[in-house]
Structure formats: C-alpha cells, structure tokens
Amino acid sequence: MAKNNFNLNIDIEEEGWNKALSSLQELSEDVLDRTLTYVKEHKEIDFLQTDNPIDINLCLSNDENIHALNAKFRHMDKPTNVLSFANIDDEFFYEEIARSNVIELGDIMIALETMQREAAEKQISLHDHYCHLFIHGILHLLGFDHMEDDEAEEMESYEIAILASMHIANPY
What we know:
Layout: E1 6-12, H1 16-20, H2 24-42, E2 54-61, H3 63-74, E3 82-86, H4 93-99, E4 103-111, H5 112-122, H6 126-141, H7 149-165
Parallel strand pairs: 1-2, 2-4
Antiparallel strand pairs: 3-4
Helix pairs in contact: 2-6, 2-7, 5-6, 6-7
C-alpha cells in the first residue's frame, strides 16, 4: 500500500477514548491512509492526484459536545455518531488549495458514548465501529454524500471495500 502524505491532528476531548481504544494515533493513521489510497485508486479527485500534503483534524469527543454542534449546524437536537465539517463545501476551497501547498480537508468529530452504544446494539467491536465512523467522516471531507440513493450506494461501497482491506465485516 502506498503511503500518503498527510497530517492527522487528533484532539481527545473525552478521556474515555484512551480506555476505549488502544493505539488511537496509529489506528487512525492507518484508516486515513487506507481511505486516501482507495479513493485515489477509484475516483478522480484532482487535488488527490498532487503530492501536496493533506491535513485533517479529528476530534474524539463526547455526546454532550456533539449534541451541541449537531443542534447548531444541523438543527438536530440530539447527539450523533460522527460530524464532518468539510472544507470542500467552502466556495473558496479550490482557490485556497491553489495558493497553498497544504490541502486542509476539514474536521471530523466522533462521539464516544454514541459509538459505544451503537457498537453494543450491532454487536460489533469498538475498533470496527470506530474504523467505520472515521472512514465515513473522511469520505465526507472528500466530497462524498448520502443524500440521494445513488450517492449513498457509492459511499457505502467505498466504506465496505476500505473496511474489507482491514478485515472488517460489511457494516450494512
């Protein structure tokens, strides 16, 4: 597998994350590298074809913080498992990457308690569910969406394939 040029900034807001999953930095970097590699090989995204480094911010948070952000930005008064704030959605994204040698993709936040609850309900490991949620968030930062059926089908197929490369079962 080709190593991608990226900088993953991880902010752990909820100390329970360190107890829930070990080797968070290494695991997260592996997930990011596998996701970028797969997308590069299967989809034409201009900025991924450059050698410019890619920056992603990952915040490992809790239901309280995610709930507040979900209410503010999505007008949903409840916590959710993952939120993505994609810079690609900014009208000046391509102008910014043309001026900089670093591609700042955006921010991903994952809520520990929601992730734990969902993993228990689905009877899957926290490791596997975390990998799925992080992949999902990265794909959003790359411009993938699931508002329409065909978009959801494409995004899910990418998630399934990337998870399979990690020997993680199809979550759907």
